[in-house]
Write a structure and sequence with these properties.
By secondary structure, the chain is an alpha+beta fold. Helices cover about 35% and strands about 30% of the residues. The protein is built from five helices and seven strands. The protein has a seven-stranded mixed sheet with strand order 1-2-3-4-5-7-6, sandwiched between helices. The chain is globular. About 30% of the residues are buried.
Length: about 160
């Protein structure tokens, strides 16, 4: 990793599974504290997810992550439903945010998705300015917004580029 340049060096996404659930959950909770603060909402589903729910999710979806010196520093989930790949829980450790890991992992997940996936969808909070900018830069377009407690969720979509 080359944090000084603001982007990761050569990194390889690793498949994550049920055995990684505890570590994924810890990373997820740490990463979502910023979102909870920004939205003044401490009941965000990623903060409330239990270990059993994380295990079940990792068993039923595709998930990848990046490790640095053995430590899980980023993870993402992809749930496939027909031609749609729903991206969820894209998280980066707070001390590693801003170094390109989220971008790199999202692009890796898109590339590793099964061939039947032709469109990717995701959502983020309306006050998550950084993630929204990243999604737009990567070709995602806003499709709609839905109410969520005291804010909105912003939904994005991106057609798969090229083949699998």
């Amino acid at each position: 990793m080359d944090g000084q340049l603001g982007h990761p060096g050569p990194v390889k996404p690793l498949r994550l599974g049920v055995a990684d659930a505890g570590e994924v959950l810890t990373l997820q909770r740490a990463a979502y504290v910023t979102e909870a603060r920004a939205h003044d909402d401490w009941d965000l589903p990623p903060l409330l997810e239990t270990l059993d729910e994380a295990r079940a999710a990792l068993e039923s979806c595709l998930s990848w992550g990046f490790r640095e010196h053995g430590r899980l520093v980023a993870s993402v989930r992809l749930t496939v439903s027909g031609a749609v790949g729903m991206v969820g829980r894209l998280v980066v450790a707070p001390d590693r945010q801003g170094h390109g890991l989220g971008r790199a992992l999202l692009l890796a997940a898109e590339g590793l998705a099964p061939p039947e996936v032709t469109v990717f969808r995701l959502f983020t909070g309306s006050k998550s300015v950084g993630p929204q900018a990243m999604y737009r830069k990567l070709g995602y377009r806003e499709t709609h917004r839905t109410p969520e407690n005291n804010h909105e969720l912003v939904h994005f979509e991106k057609a798969r580029v090229g083949g699998a």
